[in-house]
Protein 1
Amino acid sequence: MEWKIVLKHKENPWVIEIIGIGEDPHKPVELIIKSNTGLVQVKKVIEELKFKVEHPPAFLPSDIMQSSNGMYLWESIAYTYATVNGWTIESNLPELKIEEGEEIRKLREEGITPIF
């Protein structure tokens, strides 16, 4: 199975594809990251995404954090990046039902809305 996350820049023709190969999107056997350009700006985006996946936020639910290279982790990091930096994101990952743990409930009670 091929799991795919695609980021497209809203103003430029830049595209980044994050592809996971394997039956389980939580634990892809192979991970491929490619773009339609070799521009320095796009390479910096890819490096930033890789860094954030290697150093994820501590508050991510265990459903997302089942693997240090899982597609749901990549999707969460890419979604956060895309919404802040002028990109759109598409994914063929099945919707993940996240059960809120005590930490997430406490954040919501404090008026903080986590973005996954």
Note: The first strand starts at residue 2 and ends at 9.
Protein 2
Amino acid sequence: MKNKKEKINEELLGKIIELAKRGIGGEKDNAIRIIKKICKKNNLNFKEVMSARDIKEYSIYCKKNESDLLACVIYKYAMLRYGDKIGQNYDRTKLFFTTTADRFIETKNAFDTLLIMFKKEKRLIQEAFKTAFRLKHDLYYKPTAEEWKKIEDKKEKPKDDKNNKVNKMAIGIVNGLDDVQIRKQLKEIN
């Protein structure tokens, strides 16, 4: 296992190599000069060091409604800088960008993992919104007195954690909907 100093030096070298490849003007020239100096000091081949972290164009396919999420993941994990462009095909199902191979793999894995989490949370929020809509518009069935007695006579089953989470989210959404209505009414009064 590499010690901390070697790991920091390797990360720093990677950043300097990227600057040498993607930098502009003087910053690019300085980065190349620093790399040549490091190569000479450590008896390394300059061309091999520069090609070890070659930047290439990569692409990831996704569904049209997932492309915004993918773009955010690319900017975070592919370490793109401000102004770097992410290309896309005409129907936004393929995004392409330039990065190193190791960062591409990290970006692809991050997108796959985050997409699974996104879909789970999206389902929860949709369920909570449906519940909130039913609560707000009083669309639940109201049991009669006899039905309530039957319900009370039965032992209550513990609710599962998912329903509790959905119900809490729904109550928050209902409160938010009421807040919006109050604001609209206040604007109408003024």
Note: The beta strands are 55-61, 87-88, 94-100.
Protein 3
Amino acid sequence: MFKEISLKQLIWLLPVVYLVHNIEEGLSMIGWLGEHSSALPELFGKLLPESFWEKFSIIRTIALIIAVLLPLALAFFHRYKEKYKFVVLLFVFAGWITFINGIQHIIFTLLLQTYTPGVVTALFINLPFSLGLVISIEREFPWLDKQRIKWLTISIICYLPLVFIIWAIAALLSILF
């Protein structure tokens, strides 16, 4: 009944998955922050300068664009996956980062006991997609066998710094606007 999706198709779907997820976040983030700012830890406000919050819409838009362009750029490297092990590892990393982002949305929703922007697509699109991507990569590249925990751990360690780097780049680029 269903045709199996190829690894190449999954890789090209990665930017689409991010786009759909980021649209959900983008459509609800500003209103949600206004309604739930008291539920967020004070730490967020202290870590970020006042200018960040003044330009939040612009910064958020730039961060969304970056978050879609990175997987799109990665998809262009698909043709090199047989030649360069590093490219395959980037795809594994992207799959696990997508998975961790989905888990993060679910955790925030449970902790705050309310809808959080991005949780619907995280639960119904990002989580199943990311697991499918990682499993497909592992099937096509047997040398990855038994490295799942290693790459999940590396992705967990890199997740927050990666998010902060994307937001920092977006904040710097917002100066131009």
Note: Residues 10-29+50-174 form one domain.
Protein 4
Amino acid sequence: MLIPWIIGTTARDCIHSPPLRRISGMITRAAERAQDLETVSQLWRKLGHSRGWIAVYSDYVKRLLREAGGCDYRTLCADRVVQLALAYARRHQLDPQRTRRMWLASFRAFAWGLRRLGREVGSVELTGCIFRLIVVKVSKAT
């Protein structure tokens, strides 16, 4: 019974199925992000940053965006970056402070470039709301 169903399926059926739309949306978003990073890298080059600096920051931005999933740039803020960096450091057994520092610096440089391109980005300043939540949860538990 599966063969007639596959044969009877048109290209239109495949394109309009929800899973494929989600997948194509993810691919489109990933392509846009790759293009954004390339454009921001060109801005960094114009500022005179070395290829090594650009490669390191680009690598951290790629990791950050991968960890953030499909979130919009507007929802990506410094506090969220710190949260993602610390979770990544725990999972990969890395130094949390170094990971936090590098991800935050890379995010701020990337956010600067995105703003130059006219894209909206969340705040690059730490508000400390994540740390207050952690303190509140710990104090409630004790």
Note: Residues 1-10, 132-139 have pLDDT under 50 and may be disordered.
